[in-house]
Design a protein that fits this description.
Layout (H helix, E strand, L loop, with lengths): L1 H4 L2 E3 L9 H4 L4 E3 L1 H11 L3 H26 L4 H7 L2 E4 L5 E4 L23 H10 L21 H28 L2
Antiparallel strand pairs: 1-2, 3-4
Helix pairs in contact: 4-5, 4-7, 5-6
Amino acid sequence: MALVSALRISDKLPGGGRDESKIGVAIQVEGLTDILNDLQRIEPNFNKEMRKAGQAVAQLLVNEAVKEAASVTRSRQALEVMKGMRAQSDRLPTIKLASKSGFVSKSRPNRGRKPAAKVTRGQVFFGAEFGGGARKATNQFLRHRGRSGYFFWPTVRKEKKNIAEEYLRAIRTVMKKELFK
């Protein structure tokens, strides 16, 4: 367990800066990929178990982001976008948006649109997350918030320490289960 205890969680962004507004959010655990690769060589089943653990940690973040989306003013767009967010099976906690899935609109549903004009979650995500209103085409979104976001990125920033701690806890659990059978 000393390997995992020696890992350090860092706020530093790639390039050495700490300005989260420039890149979004980075959760960097120094030395993590080297340790994961070494452990995978020692125990072939390690990757399979880490994929399950990574997905479980990512699902915790998705659940928190859904709660945050529900608290946004005019939350319907945010909640509809979050229905497309999925925790992926990966060694690292990974979340993906089903960007090509249809966005369900009450005011102008997709069923009456031609295939090329159907709206997807990927098209609505950025407006729902960061706002709009600068152009007539983006008036349906809340006011533009720059890079801070309304529901997903604020949740990531708020939960980043918990994400890292849960993930390191998951690594320890998998190590106990796989390496010390």
